Amino acid sequence: MLFETEFNYHDEECAPQCWVLFKGDKILTLENKGQVVLSDVELDKLKLKPVRQQYLGRLNDRSYYVGELAADKAAPEGVLFYDLRRLLGQVPDDLFSLAGKAYHLLHWDRTHQYCGGCGVPTENKIDEVAKICPACGLIKYPRISPAIIVAIIKDNQILLAQGRQFRGYFYIAYITIS
């Protein structure tokens, strides 16, 4: 089933909740399971409380949130923090995609707490994923950064290279121009 982004922010609790947690730019994983999504029960058990949270949407009838942990919060036993890219190919694609979306929205939320026009604290817009300034009405949306994939073909061959940091079958295209 596909992840369903929901644009309205709920005042009431949406149960059951699932969490993707970050500390700075690192994603929380459970050491023994390698999982990146925690339930409310696991969150309570680990005594983790996000200092910032954003509603993501729904997947398989579960509500998903992204949370940010305090920078000075020590990792509980059995918890590791990884660079998100390190998990590429290590977790299922749908969860990696969800984690990427979670990081994107968390970063946007963190960097748009105040209006860029007048400096007043922003609020979540209730009918779409956006921040609105209650004073001047300026609306800010999460950044969209399009990318392209290019195949470099010469004599019916494609130029590929394997990055040292990636294990498995992940290749990057490159060309040296002299």
TrEMBL record:
Domain NADH pyrophosphatase-like N-terminal positions: 17-108
Domain named Zinc ribbon NADH pyrophosphatase: residues: 110-139
Top-level taxonomic group: Bacteria
GO molecular function list: hydrolase activity; metal ion binding
Protein name from the UniProt record: NAD(+) diphosphatase
